[in-house]
Amino acid sequence: MKTHPGDTLSLALLDGEEPQRTVLRTRLRQLGHACSVFSSASELILALSGGQRFQLLLAVPSDEASLGGLPAACQVLGMPVLVVVPDGQWRHLSLQGKGFESSGTLGADVSRMADAELDWLVRALVQRKNTAAGMARPHGATVWGNYHFYEGSRHVQFNGQEMRLQPRQFVLALQLFRHVGRVVEREWLWKVLWRVPVLVEGKRALDACVSNVRKRLELNGEHGFLLRAVYGQGYQLIEVHAHGALPAGIAAEQAAAPASPTH
């Protein structure tokens, strides 16, 4: 029975175990929510890659390895996560520190909640995310030269233009600007964007992502920044002076070993 007169929410349920998956799905649907069920993280990531979006993920974790690149995807998409603690087994919440901590995560034993409590919790998490997004630096931006990065809405303004990038493109551009002047290793960038081991196909995907960022943000040196590939190492965003020369000391710094940023 629907317990709240508000709008229907679009939810994703990640649970590889039956019958608890069916039980929770049935409860959510009876509360009036649209609930898509996924038996593995890879299945959910595939759906997200295909353009499907959800307002909240309810995850019943089994182990860290089963999560794959899901924590990174949730962080990039800004999707909050409710870690479902099965039958009061609070040890499962240790997985919150394995990548989900930046995604607006909360853990709860929903099996011991009344339907009204579950509905309130789901709506509260979604509302908290929406409120945070609306308050995230509404009038401010992180600025490098003519480039203004708005993390709340994931868009970039430069030279009077407003550019909305795909989530991975935005994260990539932001990381390059945060490490301007340094050579950023390919492997590090891949782990930040995908959180999975680098494959041959992955290298091509990273190259394509970099190429799109360079083209869309016009990082060709004409607007103060030049994005270049460093053979055998990674990528480097260089600040270019108005007269076309590199800042003093940059050339010498780049002769050093490439940097692997840590966060």
Largest sheet: 5 strands, parallel
Average residue pLDDT: 76
> How do the strands of the widest beta sheet line up side by side?
2-1-3-4-5
Uncertain parts: 1-5, 90-98, 134-138, 247-258
The ordered string of helix (H) and strand (E) elements is EHEHEHEEHEEEEHEHHEEH
CATH architecture of the largest domain: 3-Layer(aba) Sandwich
- Class derived from helix and strand content: alpha/beta
The CATH topology of the largest domain comes to Rossmann fold
Measured on Cα atoms, how large is the radius of gyration? 21 Å
Helix content: 25-40%
Strands, total number: 12
Descriptive tags:
single chain; 263 residues; alpha/beta; Rossmann fold; Arc Repressor Mutant, subunit A; 2 domains; five-stranded parallel sheet; 12 strands; 35% helix; elongated; disordered N terminus
Task: Give your account of this protein's structure.
The chain has two domains: 126 residues, Response regulator (Rossmann fold); 112 residues, Winged helix-like DNA-binding domain superfamily/Winged helix DNA-binding domain (Arc Repressor Mutant, subunit A, Orthogonal Bundle), CATH 1.10.10. It is elongated and about 65 Å long. The protein has 263 residues and is α/β, with parallel strands linked by helices. The longest helix has 21 residues. The strands form three sheets. A five-stranded parallel β-sheet has the order 2-1-3-4-5. Strands 6-7-8-9 form a four-stranded antiparallel β-sheet, with helices on one face. The protein is built from eight helices and twelve strands.
